[in-house]
Structure of Universal stress protein:
Amino acid sequence: MTYQHILVPVDESPISYTAVEQALSLAKLLNCRVTVMCVVAVDPFVGVDFYKVAPAITDYFMQAEENAQKRLADIKQSFIRDEIEVDTKVIRGVSAAEGIIQIADEVSADLIIMGSHGRTGFKKMMLGSVAQAVLTQSPIPVLVVKV
């Protein structure tokens, strides 16, 4: 199978950058497009009225989005240097897994390359696994890069 469009979700973790390197290598090899994305997730308390108006919370989300945009701009340069067609996206207001699936559909990606921290047992149960959720929900192949 050949791929035409790779989606790479990233966050601030080093494993995200390992996934970016894998996507960069594969995109060069297959001469395909890449979309790199970040999710600025919503906190579970978003429905609480005081939460929406709290200046500290608003500042937090504004800073999170600014950091995501900077991260994407830096990553984009790696693909541009190698003459790979690249777009970036930030999605807000959804869970990480939901955002990844949504953007994959929106850009017609045919492969998702993402990192996983490889948590198991209690840590996985308490913290969840975005990679696991994407693996189970995605209608397209997912390549999971682990540390």
About this structure: The chain has a mean pLDDT of 86. The chain has six helices and five strands. Residues 55-81 form the longest helix (27 residues).
